[in-house]
Design brief:
The complex is a heterodimer.
Chain A: H1 2-17, H2 20-42, H3 46-78, H4 81-87, H5 92-121, H6 128-155, H7 158-175, H8 187-192, H9 197-209, H10 216-239
Helix pairs in contact in A: 1-5, 2-3, 2-5, 3-5, 3-6, 3-7, 3-9, 6-7, 6-9, 6-10, 9-10
Chain B: E1 2-13, E2 16-27, E3 31-35, H1 42-49, E4 57-62, E5 76-78, H2 91-99, H3 108-114, H4 130-142, E6 148-152, H5 160-175, E7 179-184, H6 187-193, E8 196-201, E9 204-210, H7 211-218, E10 221-226, E11 239-243, E12 246-251, H8 254-263, E13 269-275, H9 278-286
Parallel strand pairs in B: 3-7, 3-8, 5-6, 6-7
Antiparallel strand pairs in B: 1-2, 1-4, 8-9, 10-12, 10-13, 11-12
Classes of the chains: A mainly alpha, B alpha/beta.
């Protein structure tokens, strides 16, 4: 099963790498946000620029996963190649895993510019321990957005999937407090953020990189969201029969 | 041993009934042609057998199990549509990807050689010609050493030589005990390969017989004449259609019909006798010919 998952991952990555614009696209947005919003406004403050970088990383994790899975899978399902792969003797496991491995690789590539910009152009600092903790937080945070993307990609046609991802990402980013410094968001955002997957992910990331108290409620809600999205993704995959006509 | 079985299977898409309580058994070692016009339900039936869709009612089995279970598909080979090959990937990558799914696949070089793809191995599939894509698509069905293969229009659009070599590959597989279900619009292709022909129309099995018997069933001629007054009822006419002055009569015995027209002194002009298309023949079989 793991070998097959690696095969799926390799296949996905090859397809992406041979059309390099796709790579540039997913790396551009978070990097541009760093350059336009973080560097000029809080670039000189080590505490704020570290938190802002962590928020941007969370933001990039959410958008790359929502779009690459949500839109990517919905588009793949419309290709005539997809039904063929579903006649091959493998259940959903290796395909899910392969997509997730490829997704993690692409996400990492899209994060490199964010981290480079933070390192070169801002006063953001991080200890080695903090960096390691941030990597852990990254893995935990990527999972629910990956699963949400899968659920969208397997349940909706391509055009609807793109719109849904677009409709979701802004409220999730704002509501989770990614656009503001820790504790500085409008009151209602501070109230709901811990219960949103973005808020949970950002709080975990802040706790990893800086002086932010670990928020148990937010982490538990992140885990709960992960379970909910896993259920949705599995359900969407099972009921999928490729393109649907009525 | 029955490799593929449908028992009283119906499949609806919204209000459309694509399969209507259809039953079919494909025993091991047979080479079955599934014949029928577009929209007859052929593709839906194949999609049920290959685990892509589930029936609205009834039971579908592949190698004795529900084809939606991965294990049931370990002995299954399917051709992808050649338009759907991932265009940025190389031939050898697509072959390896497919091989990775099977417990004991054919060797990569063997697959490439058997289907004449060796020289194309490093090419991206998007750059292949239609015929080359078709060869790759058919090759993928045989990669996993299947016991049963579903081939969908395997040689449509191929030149004569490529068609013959693909037919040879299918015959070789069958001679080694393989089971083949072949769907086609073309009687010629089914005649060249199949022993048994199943004609599907309106979601049902209309005929299930040897190639010769079905060829007789669908060997309907279309006799067209222009007459001032309607043509009287004549024996052997299975369908008729009137367009202005022109009357089209469908019959299995065109010679007799022409003799009858003359004997009854029907004042006709512009006599024309044509073989019918398979589709017209099927419509006649379903009794829905106008």
């Amino acid at each position: 099963m793991t070998t097959l998952a690696l095969t799926h991952a390799k296949f996905q990555l090859l397809e992406t790498v041979r059309i390099p614009m796709a790579l540039i696209g997913s790396a551009f947005f978070p990097a541009a946000s760093m350059l336009f919003f973080v560097v000029p406004f809080v670039g000189d403050d080590p505490v704020y620029s570290t938190f802002a970088t962590a928020s941007m990383v969370t933001f990039a994790v959410m958008t790359t996963n929502l779009f690459q899975y949500g839109a990517g899978i919905a588009e793949d399902r419309a290709q005539p190649w997809d039904p063929f792969t579903r006649t091959l003797p493998a259940g959903p496991g290796p395909r899910f895993l392969g997509r997730i491995l490829a997704g993690l690789a692409l996400m990492t590539i899209s994060l490199i510019p964010v981290v480079l910009i933070a390192w070169l152009f801002t006063a953001a600092t991080i200890t080695w321990g903090g960096a390691l903790a941030a990597l852990g937080a990254l893995a935990v945070s990527a999972l629910p957005f990956t699963l949400l993307g899968l659920a969208i990609g397997y349940s909706l046609p391509a055009k609807a999937a793109i719109v849904t991802a677009q409709l979701l990402f802004f409220p999730l980013a704002f509501g989770g407090g990614l656009m503001t410094a820790p504790g500085a968001a409008p009151g209602f955002v501070e109230n709901i953020a811990p219960y949103l997957p973005t808020g949970g992910a950002a709080r975990l990331m802040w706790a990893a990189v800086g002086d932010f108290r670990f928020d148990l409620t937010a982490t538990v809600s992140l885990v709960a969201w992960t379970i909910v999205f896993a259920g949705l993704a599995a359900w969407a995959y099972r009921r999928d029969e490729g393109r649907r006509f009525s | 041993m029955t490799l593929a079985r449908a028992i009283n299977v119906s499949r609806r898409y919204g209000d459309v009934l694509a399969l209507d309580r259809l039953s079919l058994d494909v025993p091991a070692g047979q080479l079955v042609g599934l014949l029928g016009p577009n929209g007859a339900g052929k593709s839906t039936l194949v999609n049920l057998f290959t685990g892509l869709r589930r029936p609205s009612e009834g039971t579908v089995e592949l190698c004795g199990r529900d084809p939606r279970h991965a294990a049931a598909r370990a002995s299954l080979g399917v051709t992808p549509q050649e338009t759907g090959l991932p265009s940025s990937l190389r031939v050898v990558e697509v072959v390896d990807y497919t091989r990775a799914h099977f417990p004991r696949p054919l060797g990569r070089d063997e697959v490439l050689a058997r289907f004449g793809l060796t020289d194309l191995a490093r090419r991206q599939t998007g750059g292949l010609s239609g015929g080359q894509k078709r060869r790759l698509a058919v090759a993928l069905a045989f990669v996993g050493r299947p016991r049963i293969v579903f081939l969908d229009e395997p040689t449509t659009g191929l030149d004569v030589e490529a068609r013959r070599s693909l037919w040879d590959a299918v015959r070789e597989f069958h001679a080694d005990g393989g089971t083949v279900v072949l769907t086609s619009h073309y009687l010629e292709e089914v005649e060249a390969l199949a022993q048994r022909v199943v004609v599907i129309g309106g979601g049902r099995v209309l005929a299930d017989d040897t190639v010769d018997a079905v060829r007789g069933l669908v060997a309907i001629r279309r006799v067209s004449v222009s007459t001032a007054s309607p043509v009287p009822d004549l024996p052997g006419v299975v369908g008729r259609e009137r367009e202005g002055e022109r009357t089209h009569l469908l019959t299995p015995d065109a010679d007799r019909l022409v003799r009858d027209l003359v004997a009854k002194e029907v004042p006709f002009a512009d006599l024309e006798v044509r073989p019918t298309s398979l589709e017209e023949a099927f419509l006649t079989l379903t009794g829905s010919a106008r």
